[in-house]
TrEMBL record:
NCBIfam families recorded: fmt
EC top class, as a word: transferase
Gene (UniProt): fmt
PANTHER family: METHIONYL-TRNA FORMYLTRANSFERASE (PTHR11138), METHIONYL-TRNA FORMYLTRANSFERASE, MITOCHONDRIAL (PTHR11138:SF5)
Origin species: Azospirillum brasilense
Source species taxonomy: Bacteria, Pseudomonadati, Pseudomonadota, Alphaproteobacteria, Rhodospirillales
Catalytic activity: L-methionyl-tRNA(fMet) + (6R)-10-formyltetrahydrofolate = N-formyl-L-methionyl-tRNA(fMet) + (6S)-5,6,7,8-tetrahydrofolate + H(+)
Entry EC number(s): 2.1.2.9
Protein name in the entry: Methionyl-tRNA formyltransferase
Entry GO MF terms: methionyl-tRNA formyltransferase activity
Function: Attaches a formyl group to the free amino group of methionyl-tRNA(fMet). The formyl group appears to play a dual role in the initiator identity of N-formylmethionyl-tRNA by promoting its recognition by IF2 and preventing the misappropriation of this tRNA by the elongation apparatus.
This protein's UniProt keywords: Protein biosynthesis, Transferase
Classification via InterPro entries: Fmt (IPR005794), Formyl_trans_C (IPR005793), Formyl_trans_C_sf (IPR037022), Formyl_transf_N (IPR002376), Formyl_transf_N_sf (IPR036477), Formyl_transferase-like_C_sf (IPR011034), GART_AS (IPR001555), Met-tRNA-FMT_C (IPR044135)
Length: 326
């Protein structure tokens, strides 16, 4: 292995294994770039990012610019004289002067099999779409949105048990392994970047809280994937009518497909409560909500929620039902 002089650019937990792997491999990480500290948690205390905290533990200098588009920030970056920059979920667009500064360019650890799921939320979008597999692509960055040529790929299956959390951790570890391998191959001249194919491009749009609204007019398989894909962020939820005529938002943490032969789902309108185990009819089939949470309460199973929350079988859940008060 040829030790390289590196700049690392990343922010969330996903990026920490890559930074750790590069440092442990013997590369000289001369500086880390991360998003500025921001308020977080219930107390909204200003907190440093996971990458920022890890870098400080290792004694690596950290910079947290709000932008890299100004000449001063670009000059400071160039002065680091890095052989390469490694980018993993950093959160800022790199302008051309930044991309051009390192001798070997800027390499990105991207959480999908490019060109599928370019963009901000590839892990969640892959599960939500029902993809059979996803993976990591190590990409030579260019000015486009995840359009650069590819150096290495590896894949992992997406199963019926795969959640966003489990897939996040698997891909974070895979990315750490592949970025070390890619840098070794690039420095030794063994790796040549391959352009992405034009066919098969999809975009993983940034998630919003509204993406977590459960839509019973979709099929049951989609709703179940939605829960696996969007927990913990942005979280899945539905609105339920209260006995006083109000509406309460119920968070859904786990769900499973329900057998249609036992719940009359085919006869019920989407969003109908079918039994005392919190089974909900969908456009095709039904889902059973196995772990749910009322505001300010601890998570409970669906049956326990119904024991403490008067929702008779046949209640319609969702926007139309709540607005009608039934």
């Amino acid at each position: 292995m040829t030790p390289l002089r590196l700049v690392f650019m990343g922010t969330p937990d996903f990026a920490v294994p890559s930074l750790r792997a590069l440092a442990d491999a013997g590369h000289e990480v001369v500086c880390v770039y991360s998003q500025p500290p921001r308020p977080a948690g219930r107390g909204q205390q200003v907190q440093k990012s996971p990458v920022h905290r890890f870098a400080e533990e290792r004694g690596i200098p950290v910079r947290t610019p709000k932008s890299l588009r100004n000449a001063e920030a670009q000059a400071e970056f160039a002065e680091l004289k890095a052989d390469a920059a490694v980018v993993a979920a950093y959160g800022l667009i790199l302008p051309q002067p930044i991309l051009d500064a390192p001798r070997l360019g800027c390499l990105n650890v991207h959480g999908s099999l490019l060109p599928r799921w370019r963009g901000a939320a590839p892990i969640q979008r892959a599960i939500l779409a029902g993809d059979a597999e996803t993976g990591i692509t190590i990409m030579q960055m260019d000015i486009g949105l995840d359009t650069g040529a590819m150096l290495l790929k590896d894949a992992v299956p997406i199963t019926a048990e795969t959640t966003a959390s489990s897939l996040h951790d698997t891909l974070a570890d895979m990315g750490a392994r592949l970025i070390v391998e890619a840098l070794d191959g690039l420095a030794a001249g063994r790796l040549t970047a391959v352009p992405q194919p034009e066919a098969g491009v999809t975009y993983a749009a940034k998630l919003t809280r509204e993406d977590g609204r459960l839509d019973w007019t979709r099929d049951a398989a989609f709703v179940e994937r939605q829960v696996r894909a969007l927990t913990p962020w942005p979280g899945c939820w539905f609105d339920a009518p209260t006995p006083t005529g109000g509406v309460e938002r119920i968070k859904v943490l786990k769900a499973e497909p329900a057998p249609t032969s036992t719940n009359n789902a085919r006869k019920a309108a989407p969003g109908t409560l079918l039994d005392d185990r919190l089974t909900i009819a969908c456009a095709d089939g039904a889902v059973r909500l196995t772990l749910v949470q009322r505001p300010g309460k601890a998570p409970v199973d669906g049956a326990a929620l119904l024991r403490g929350f008067a929702l008779p079988v046949g209640t319609r859940l969702g926007d139309a039902a709540c607005s009608a008060g039934n």
